[in-house]
Amino acid sequence: ELGGKLRSSLHRLQGGRGDDAITTETLDAVLRDIGEALAESDVRAELVTDLKDNIRRKVGDAVSENTASSNANLARQVQRAVVDELTSMLTPSGEGSAKPYVMRRGRPNVILFVGLQGAGKTTSIAKFAHHYLRRGWKTAMVCADTFRAGAFDQLKQNATKLRVPFYGSYTEADPVSIAEEGVDRFVQDGYEVIIVDTSGRHRQEEGLFEEMQEISAAVNPSNTIFVMDATQGQAVYDQARAFHSAVNVGSVIVTKLDGHARGGGAISAVAATGSPIVFLGSGERFEDLEAFNAQSFVSKLLGFGDMRGFMEEIKSLNSGKDREEMMKNMAKGQFTLRDLYKQFQSVSKMGPLDRVMGMMPGMPEHLIPKGGDDERSKQLRKFLVIMDSMSDKELDGKIDLQKKNDPATEKRIRRIAAGSGCHPMEVRALLQQHKQMESMVSKMGKSGMMGGGNAKQR
Ligand code: GDP
Ligand code: MG
């Protein structure tokens, strides 16, 4: 797993082993680990080489001049460089790179979706439509996939659920004329977001690119979105290049990030198309679409949780004094059980629970309760009840509940379990989870990744 590997190689830098100064050899070893981890996560070899060169350029001098006393500072510098380099790889810049497309109100924005069959175009179109509908855009869909049986029905079903108008045909076999007619009609009717679905097919099949070019010429899209399946790995780079040279891709959507995919392919897609990633797909529901943010993505890739996204969500709730206090503490790297309690309380107000919990720092995937939202809120309520049985001192971390083989601690845990009607194992599970989050917040606070400028500097 990429996050784990990167974290452990970055950990090497933290000089767990006493006062040896970080040397050029240490840096080489760390860069080699990072390179291997990225390669395993489907990042292309050239990109990995670039990344390593850039990091070396940034911190090489500091490392060769390093003494043991500045180790901690240097470790942070290297971490920062890794994060920054990964972030900039996900942010296209320089010659030939596409500016993020900005949707224009009151005018037709024709958005053409392309990508291989099964990449998730039709699903993403529904999510994309849902996203804009909720923000008040007049939205419509056109189905120019006449290749796959059932394609029109799939789009129609989604459109009907979302209550957006759609255009397509069961009998007309020419996707170009359908695309043209559909778009013309919705332009005339004053639609603002007009989404065109195309057929994907497999790479071997002839005629796909010609067809796409004809559709593209016929509808003259404002933006062409390449949809890529994150589970496709190394193959993505060549696919993305081929699509880009055929139809001038302007944006990328990465799908299926809810599975085991590690997202290295996303870096390749950006490199191959020079286009920004706009959304991430993380499930099959209309809500499972997140606006892309490079820093959040990298922070997740590194296993830090989506701290920034999480903070944004917390901020967007009515921010009481409590929350501000908590955010201040988190930026300092502090995270008590009481903070966890407040987080769980606010999480229950934030909507799709699995998504929000997935953003929590240090929340390992296996601890996110499985099942529907009902199942999850039950679990969450149970955690809250357990914490209700704790004393103020316990909640504020003035008493350590993690002491091993300590009769007094055992007694406290039994008391909390009895008070909340749970098994002591459940109390321990909660404490364990808190501990993981605490250590993650502490690391992030120290690395300054959480912003707020409160990071401790030596
Ligand atoms: P298309 O051929 O490119 O239009 O692909 P579809 O939209 O039909 O999607 C192919 C399959 O992938 C379907 O079974 C979708 O439900 C599934 N799918 C699409 N996006 C996601 C996603 O973000 N997560 C998961 N888990 N499945 C997805
Ligand atoms: Mg489709």
Task: Give an overview of the whole structure.
Its EC number is 3.6.5.4. This is signal-recognition-particle GTPase. The protein has 458 residues and is α/β, with parallel strands linked by helices. The protein folds into 3 domains: 2-89, Up-down Bundle (Four Helix Bundle (Hemerythrin (Met), subunit A)); 109-301, 3-Layer(aba) Sandwich (Rossmann fold); 307-447, Orthogonal Bundle (434 Repressor (Amino-terminal Domain)). The chain has 19 helices and 8 strands. It has helices at residues 2-13, 24-40, 45-64, 71-89, 121-134, 151-162, 175-188, 208-219, 235-247, 264-273, 294-301, 307-316, 321-331, 337-347, 353-359, 373-388, 392-395, 407-420, 424-447, and strands spanning 109-114, 139-144, 166-167, 193-198, 223-229, 251-255, 277-281, 289-291. The chain has an 8-stranded mixed sheet with strand order 3-2-4-1-5-6-7-8, with helices on both faces. Helix 3 packs antiparallel against helix 4 (71-89), helix 7 runs parallel beside helix 8 (208-219) and helix 9 (235-247) runs parallel beside helix 10. The chain is globular and about 75 Å long. The model is unreliable at 15-19 and 451-458 (pLDDT under 50). The protein binds guanosine-5'-diphosphate (GDP) and magnesium ion.
Short description:
GO terms for molecular function: 7S RNA binding; endoplasmic reticulum signal peptide binding; GTP binding; GTPase activity. This protein has 458 residues and is of the alpha/beta class.
Keywords:
Rossmann fold, eight-stranded mixed sheet, 19 helices, 9% strand, binds guanosine-5'-diphosphate, binds magnesium ion
